[in-house]
Amino acid sequence: MNKSNISKLKLFLIGLENRYTENLSIFKDINVIYSAGLKTFKGVAKNR
Question: Cα–Cα–Cα angle for 7, 13, 19, nearest 5°?
Fold first, then answer.
């Protein structure tokens, strides 16, 4: 993954994190799958 993709992904995840923490009652969980080339990266956040 190059620096451009990492920067875009980081910006997306920061926005998602802020929305998630501000509205915990709305989200049950979040599942993210990011593909870059042949690799896939998975992310999971669950509300307790």
Answer: 140
